[in-house]
Fold this protein.
Amino acid sequence: MNILVLTPLIPYPPHDGDKLRLYHFLLYLKKRGHTIDLFCLTRVQDDLRYAEDLRPLCRTLYTEHINNWDLFFNLIGGLLIGQSLNVSSHFSPKMREVLKAYWQTTEGQKIDVVLAHRLRMAPAAFEGNPGKPVVLELTDSLTGYTQQLKDHSMVRGSRRLVAWWDYWFLKKEEVEWMEKAFQSIVISEPDSQVLREQGAPADKVIVIPNGVEPVRTFKFKRPNEYPAKRPVVCFVGNMGYPPNEDGAIWFLKKVWPRIKSEVPNAVFAAVGGQPRKILRKYNNRDDVLVTGWVPKVEPYVKYAAVSVAPLRVASGMQNKVALAMALGTLVVAPMLAFEWIPPKGRETVITAEDEEKFANLVVEAILKPRRIKNLVLRGQRFILRNYKWNESGKKLEAILKKAAQSTKV
């Protein structure tokens, strides 16, 4: 197949959830012999330097940076025309013209199917499209995510206001774009349920979870930042992502002092992404580490006594949780972070909804690791057995083939 892929990010390096997911999909499709033309928008200018690393996976590679002025005018436009800010934020007149010309080329005319990654790329997937089927890879339901934001009392006022606006428009937009698409894909059953409740056709929603890397592929040593002979509690992810930032700060303020009172030599590490000053200020290079971006997060998880995911807003599949479970590291988190796991798998997790229980469970895991060893092993087996990138890639490929064939009948 010849596949046009549209995405609002540069899927490399494959660390963050969205990048990880799309990169592995591209990798699988390339290995299967399919031809990929990749068009990327990005809000992160530094990511442009990684674009060439994607060149081996695609025939055509287009990248464009949406700067702050672009974003400003896009958001104003969204307010004026009554559109969700999530979708309007990635409007690009330049890409629109590039795609218009692309459809006239030999490569464009031979495209079999369009894969639009994330809802914000849906307009670009359909505008000027000469009748090629579109598969909409939503990943998460933005309706469900914004509903959490607008209803959460701890979210700051400006973000709640934006969430209120987006929620009411996304309720309509997600369903409308899904009805136009040949098929839509989400990462978890809870996301599928939200969309069906909003009126999306049940047969238009398919769940394809992320995978995890086989344990045998991980070869690494203890991170230099981790002090020797001191237990580490880690939280990995893009620390510039608001829910992760919020969770890390809540943990440091409400939970960490309780843990330190019981385990004075413990260390907390917030690992990954682009943390803002509000979180970086906690970094004292002693018992609190805020690392920023790291080449690989796996060593930080593997050599931690406990992995935490103190999320108070979450949607979709939590890759940080899946990674820790796959590596055999205990995860403590609220149920919100485990909702993507089916009921059988939840028997292997430890949940905490308030700061006192959170602290107590982390302390117990540090001081008495043998008590939870069997639970951790069961969780590891469950994740490795049920979440495989090859299986997810096969499901995506089957959907794309079916879409491509629909125009040839």
User: Anything to note?
Assistant: The domain at 2-211+389-406 is CATH 3.40.50.2000 (Rossmann fold).
